[in-house]
Amino acid sequence: xxxxxxxxxxxxxxxxxxxxxxxxxxxxxxxxxxxxxxxxxxxxxxxxxxxxxxxxxxxxxxxxxxxxxxxxxxxxxxxxxxxxxxxxxxxxxxxxxxxxxxxxxxxxxxxxxxxxxxxxxxxxxxxxxxxxxxxxxxxxxxxxxxxxxxxxxxxxxxxxxxxxxxxxxxxxxxxxxxxxxxxxxxxxxxxxxxxxxxxxxxxxxxxxxxxxxxxxxxxxxxxxxxxxxxxxxxxxxxxxxxxxxxxxxxxxxxxxxxxxxxxxxxxxxxxxxxxxxxxxxxxxxxxxxxxxxxxxxxxxxxxxx
Length: 305
Description:
Elements: H1 24-35, H2 38-44, H3 46-61, E1 66-70, H4 72-89, E2 96-100, H5 120-127, E3 135-139, H6 146-158, E4 161-166, H7 172-176, E5 179-182, H8 197-215, H9 233-247, H10 251-260, H11 265-274, H12 278-287, H13 292-304
Parallel strand pairs: 1-2, 1-3, 3-4, 4-5
Helix pairs in contact: 2-8, 3-8, 4-8, 5-6, 9-10, 9-11, 10-11, 11-12, 11-13, 12-13
């Protein structure tokens, strides 16, 4: 195993050797400059990100789950991304899940030593009943966290597709994953503080993985969140606005159709665009696996006969 000081994420940034002596203006300017390099580093990993996204889509199509597993900041980013999927894309809370070393409490309070427990990862995955239908993505900026390594090893035994998201090239975790997303952002402004550029890079990658996968699962129409869960006043207002933008209908008509559709935006869109009833719209969506464009096309085709 590489020693910590050999990792790029642990090296000193030559631009910030006098960080403690800089003014606030100078500190935030240099942080902004360094953050500006992250997107370019992520771009270099796009080919692998594409492959991982395709595997996520495949897993979801066969009834599997996307499971993130990580420790510390990386683990928290997994929890954050997973928790946003149900309200954004209307999936249940078991479709995208996240495990963090030390358990749920570690999201708020650090659990010392949890990330070093390689065997606990297998126990945590057993408790989630990991199967070969799922895809497991290990998250670790360093690329060597024992907890995540143990998870990837256990998943491999079950024939589960695995991926790793790290910020060091040729990392240990990459050796244990089927697909390795390595985004090397260079030394941090504050030496070893991977909650900075490395975390930003990982967040960008996770944004891509779930957003692109959900789009390819029919959770988006045009560029609109048409599968959002209308669970409060704000989201109802958003659903109303989305319906108007998607169809060009009036506010009054949007309200009527949204009520008839039981606040299900996708159904309301098909109702308006194809001129069909709620039950018919639901049937077309079911026949096309929830893809609005296909449902509208099929409805129009049948009505034209």
